[in-house]
Amino acid sequence: MSANTPTPPRVALIGFGEAGGILATDLAAQGLAVSTYDRLLAQAASRAPLEARAGEAGVRLADSAAAAAEGADWVISAVTAGSALDVARQLAPHLQAGQLFIDINSVAPNTKRSARDAIEAAGASYIDAAVMAPVPPKRLQTPILLGGRRAAALLPELAALGMNVRAVSEEVGVASAIKMCRSILIKGLEALTAEAMTTARRYGAEAEVLRSLHQSFPEMGWDGAQPHYLISRIAEHGRRRAEEMEEVAKTAGDVGVIPHMSQATVHAQRGLVDAMAAQGLAYAALEPFDWTRLADALAHTPG
What we know:
Layout: E1 11-14, H1 18-29, E2 34-37, H2 44-57, E3 60-61, H3 65-69, E4 74-77, H4 84-91, E5 100-103, H5 109-121, E6 125-131, H6 135-138, E7 144-147, H7 151-160, E8 165-169, H8 174-202, H9 206-216, H10 226-253, H11 260-278, H12 291-297
Parallel strand pairs: 1-2, 1-4, 2-3, 4-5, 5-6, 7-8
Antiparallel strand pairs: 6-7
Helix pairs in contact: 4-5, 8-9, 8-10, 8-11, 8-12, 10-11
């Protein structure tokens, strides 16, 4: 490496789930030194699979968030919405000036601001990052919005790694607000689809309902994969998405909007995965996913 070539950043991923695992894998593949920590390491059944995944990805697996973050230039938080603020507060005392905490969690603007306060009190810098689409299909090219005082300066470094990023504000919370408002519609549509099609299935009316939806919105794919995809998102990630929708409801409530639909979506998303758990249904057992199979399996589940 020449004297004029910048040293690649050392990266820590807190959370080695779907999004964190993909980011860690793809960044390590570009030659970056990547470490990670996931709370599932504490569970005996999860530790070996995590160790195997990390080894395959060329990622160093640490036994704590603090150990993963030690010496990292960038610390990327990719945990669940319900634990995002706790992770920031618990990790903050272990961070130092010069480190950058990139918060990609789907939480309310005020939750991000509280996380920023904890991180910046420790002397590190904070970036509000909003992931605007599911990560698996496009991986590093998934669109991400950035906010915070250092967002514009970070942009070219992330873009150089192949990431699809755009700075939207120097204020923490704006990027998050964009994501939260979008989720009212996207995750609400998932919940509405699950309720509408399950009801239609029990009346034997699903074919006509889908035909009508396709006639009204032919570009959306109601006659093809769309209902399967929307309902599969709940079946696979409903508990995590319900946590996010609680943050969406908080986003609305914090500015005086009554979050009727967001709160209903919380119950719908969580209710479906609770019903699956009550029947002993795992998402993996339903692949390739077909919403009618799930609806039929849940037909006799109370509530």
